Amino acid sequence: MAFLTEDERKHNTNKKLYDALMKQENTEVLRLCRGLESGPLHILTVHDDTVLHVAAYSKQTDLVLCLLKELEMRLPEFPVDGLKHRNDMGNTILHEIATFDRVDSAAKIILDREPDLLGMRNKSGETALFRAVRYGKTVMFDFLDQQVNQFFSVYEREACYYKLRGATILHAAVRSEHFGLALSIAKKYEYLVNERDADGMTALQLLACNRQAFGSGEKYGYIKRSIYTRKILEMLHSGILELHQVVV
């Protein structure tokens, strides 16, 4: 009988784990994790994703919660900063969860244990809150924003609203065409309206110049243009915005 090398055993385990994750076989995933020294924090992919990362970016919210509860039961076995692990894109588990449509117990469990995750950036310079905005996840943004305000000082909070190269969460909302979220951000954080990105553009100037986004004579472009116009008028009426701010 041939004996497997350590690398072969690891490869076989990873294959079984990955297959179980893709088939959403939660019971099997948990069983396999219990046999691993690092459990749900086991590095599963060549991109340095843990089991938790893969479960999160494949939107298996129930499994993420089960894996976190498994971690809690085995907490003394793991390093204090285990949840701060980044994959090769620099994303933590919170960056992955930030793209969820809803806030569940998983995000709360993670932040109760590691609130510092709120300030960690990926290789694109994004905090988890910034990423939630880019994906248009309004409910998740509201939750993370609440957590940022709870755990961080004013200076630390404001840093979470900026990407490393100057763009703000308002720029991110506009670039991704999440107009309702952009309006909400502009109303809540008025100072972001005047902030400029690395190209010297405010978020609203960026949108005004994006003719491709509005289309030309197409029904879809007309709808988006109408939404944009309504949002701008609301902001002008409420005093958040002055007319010169939307003119390049």
UniProtKB/TrEMBL annotation:
Question: Which SUPFAM superfamilies does the record cross-reference, listed alphabetically?
Answer: Ankyrin repeat
Look up the domain of life of the source: Eukaryota
For this protein, the record's InterPro entries field holds: Ankyrin_rpt (IPR002110), Ankyrin_rpt-contain_sf (IPR036770)
Q: Which Pfam families match?
A: Ank_2
Q: What is this protein called?
A: Uncharacterized protein
State the species of origin: Solanum tuberosum (Potato)
